[in-house]
Write a structure and sequence with these properties.
596 residues, eight-stranded antiparallel beta sheet, 2 helices, Immunoglobulin-like, mainly beta
């Protein structure tokens, strides 16, 4: 059975880092020096990170350097451009015992000038990696401890310097991080768009470039590797448009962004949410978004917006400049429950300006494909957004179950339950395949089994067998009711991926529907083989409340309803309950919420 779950997307209000600072290095003689503290000299592993905005590549430029290169004597590390006009940026790390010039072969990426790019280089004692915007560009196999002989002059931002040369960086720098550990690809990607706390393990120097004036650059780590600007003044503190969001720490799960580099491609998804724009954003226009790492659904703070539920997952967005485009939400990824879908117009993109209070409606779903809802022409603003949805309980026909009752050669039997009906003339059943879009296959006009009950307040069970299926084909089904005025309303429950004579591949205990519920909910489960099945309800103290199933069952798609009573038939109180399945060696537990 496919369960309906509505989804909320929430974006959070915060100050945008887009209004922060960067340092402007002129490529001629601007730089800062940060001393020679031993914390800046890791011995076996290292990570260098920075947001850089390259103006030109007129020579061998260094953005972050604590290194010496005098032919046969090379030491330290360097984040630099590998030659005049090449746009080829790299990290080089001197290793004990390496051959002369060996560090010139280190991994690299070609950067585009006049746009913000995040770069990171790592060395773990065996491999050197170079990342561009959180994605691995190239890697090289090397070994040995980091060589610090001879000791370089200084840690510099904006230049490389030793006894025989000085090379200066032409561009902007922001959010510079130096680590004594090799950060993983996931750690780099998850943190390029967020500010750090400064106390992270292995963080030896951290320059937010947030001072804004003067000639001192504060080290925001727990060390004191403060920098002094040379040949620079207040005019070199410029506005930064690096896409860094100042997100609440509770919303820093799966942080992503859309900015100039994204072009017209969709952003990476933050647990179900992606953004797309119709034309590439200009510098200074971006949105950073993360979420609160909460799955499931909620009925709180809905307000008067035509929605009855929302997801527990909340996305916070920090927007800079102007961003307008398309938002898509994958309900399965966002809620943690597979197979939800419905009619696009049932979904709302909600908004509120603060962390509490009711939401207002910002947009209505424009389209839906499977369980991915699309909202178009959305103008983002700092605040909390949400996607809510209308549950079937608020429709004239309250559909509480839609499932596969049986599959066999040349036949699929469908089964659905209504708890009440108002002016229901009957149902229409649609079907689609991978190659044929939705088409009507049955109607109350020609099939008596699809005729409605008019207006009733009791439960009604419907069954229909689709005898027009073929072997080795996969089908999706959806259902709509039609009222006496001819209005057709599709329901949010859909059946996905059903084939004739199909038997589930694995054991599955599905999320109950509806959830939260009052007082009846349906528990569905898949049996890939015949098994002795036991389904039991427990309260949160572990006390057994009700045994719904305890019998031998054949393989197939199964379901059972619970009416919120105990084994004695007495109603139970509202709250959180557990339901378990034991089938052979398979055991699984899920949670559900009873409302009163």
């Amino acid at each position: 059975m496919v369960r309906y779950i509505s989804l909320l997307l929430i974006f959070g209000l915060s100050y945008s880092q887009g209004g922060g600072y960067a340092l402007d290095f002129d490529g001629s003689n601007d730089y800062s020096q940060h001393g020679t503290n031993s914390s800046l000299r890791p011995t076996s592993e290292i990570t260098l990170e920075a947001w850089i905005y390259v103006h030109t590549n007129a020579n061998w430029e260094s953005a972050v350097s604590y290194a010496t290169d005098n032919g046969a004597t090379e030491s330290g590390y360097d984040l630099f451009c590998k030659g005049a006009g090449s746009n080829k940026w790299s990290i080089r790390v001197a290793r004990v015992g390496m051959s002369e010039g060996d560090w010139a072969t280190d991994p690299y990426a070609y950067l585009t000038t006049w746009q913000w790019t995040h770069v990171a280089g790592t060395y773990d004692g065996t491999t050197i990696c170079f990342y561009q915007n959180g994605v691995l560009s190239t890697s090289e196999t090397h070994s040995g401890d980091i060589d610090w002989s001879p000791l370089p002059e200084n840690l510099y931002l904006g230049k490389f310097s030793d006894s025989d040369e000085n090379n200066y960086f032409d561009g902007y720098l922001d959010e510079v991080r130096i680590w004594s550990v090799a950060r993983t690809a996931t750690q780099i990607a998850d943190n390029i768009h967020v500010l750090l706390d400064g106390d992270e393990t292995g963080l030896e120097a951290y320059y937010k470039i947030s001072d804004g004036s003067g000639t001192t650059i504060t080290d925001n780590s727990e060390n004191s590797n403060t920098g002094t600007m040379v040949n620079m003044d207040n005019s070199d503190w410029v506005t930064s448009y690096a896409p860094i969001g100042d997100l609440n720490s509770s919303y820093e799960t799966d942080v992503e962004a859309i900015w100039k580099v994204s072009g017209t491609s969709a952003s990476d998804a933050s647990d179900g949410l992606t953004m797309t724009v119709s034309s590439a954003l200009s510098t200074g226009n971006f949105a950073v978004f993360g979420n609160n790492n909460t799955s499931g659904i909620s009925a709180s703070d809905i307000g008067n917006v035509g929605s009855t539920e929302r997801t527990g997952r909340i996305w916070q967005v920090d927007e800079s400049g102007t961003v307008a485009g398309t938002i898509t939400i994958d309900i399965s990824d966002a809620t943690g429950n597979a197979g939800q879908s419905g009619t696009a117009s049932n979904f709302r993109l909600l908004y509120r300006s603060g962390t509490s209070g009711d939401f207002s409606s910002a947009a209505t779903g424009a389209s839906i494909s499977g369980d991915v809802v699309t909202f178009t022409s959305v103008s983002l603003a700092d605040g909390y957004y949400a996607m809510g949805a209308q549950s079937d309980a608020s429709l004239p026909v309250e559909l509480t179950s839609f499932e596969v009752l049986d599959t066999r050669d040349n036949g699929i039997t469908l089964h659905w339950i209504t708890e009440s009906e108002i002016n229901n003339l009957g149902f229409i059943l649609d079907r689609r395949t991978l190659t044929i879009d939705w088409m009507e296959i049955a109607s109350f006009v020609t099939g008596t089994e699809l005729q409605g009950q008019g207006s009733v307040s009791h439960q009604t069970i419907y069954t229909y067998t689709d005898n027009t299926v073929i072997d080795n084909e996969v089908y999706d089904y959806r259902i709509a009711d039609v009222d006496y005025d001819g209005n057709k309303e599709y329901h949010s429950l859909q059946l996905m991926g059903i084939s004739p004579a199909s038997i589930p591949i694995t054991y599955v205990l599905r999320q109950n529907y509806p959830n939260p519920f009052n007082p009846i909910t349906t528990l569905s489960y898949d049996l890939p083989e015949d098994a002795l099945v036991k389904i039991t309800i427990y309260d949160m103290m572990g006390r057994q409340i009700n045994t719904l199933v305890s019998s031998q069952q054949t393989a197939g798609y199964r379901s059972v309803q619970w009416n919120a009573t105990n084994d004695a038939g007495q109603p139970v109180s509202a709250g959180l309950y557990l339901y378990t399945i034991q089938a052979g060696d398979f055991r699984q537990v899920k949670k559900m919420v009873l409302l009163k």
